[in-house]
Amino acid sequence: MIWRFSLSRFLRVDTFIYGCPSMEEMENFSALYKKRLNEVGESGDIPSDLALEVSSPGAERLLKVPDDLERFKEMPMQVCYVAINEGPGNTEKDGVFLLESVEAASESCMWKLANVRENRDPLAKGRPLSRKKKEWRLCLPYGSLKKVSLYIDNE
């Protein structure tokens, strides 16, 4: 029986604020990295079965709370959270929000409704959010955030 253990190392290339390098940037990085690996490989310092995988997480990736929140602050986010009820049990809710602020001291964040179709009145065709909805805010502790991802408009 042959045992083979796999060791993975991940390297992240963030050249753009939203973490989406172009194909050209990935090709250039990959070529430079491969060149350097070949140089080091000749000395025998790295295994010969090393592989390089280049991938992009895409827009539907989960965001890290609180690390990625500030970075995507201007973009609408699909937020799934646990709402604490006064009665028995808590409920899981979701919505499309914009991040207004992150409060590191209290480990919470303030959200406002994003101006997207899901948050608008279906009868008010083409109109933006009402004043009441624009002023609405939701403060959530990090622990109540179940899933946060970038909002993708399917229109």
From TrEMBL:
- Residue span(s) of domain DUF7912: 62-151
Top-rank lineage group of the source organism: Eukaryota
PANTHER family for the chain: OS07G0155200 PROTEIN, OSJNBA0006B20.18 PROTEIN
Q: State the protein's name.
A: DUF7912 domain-containing protein
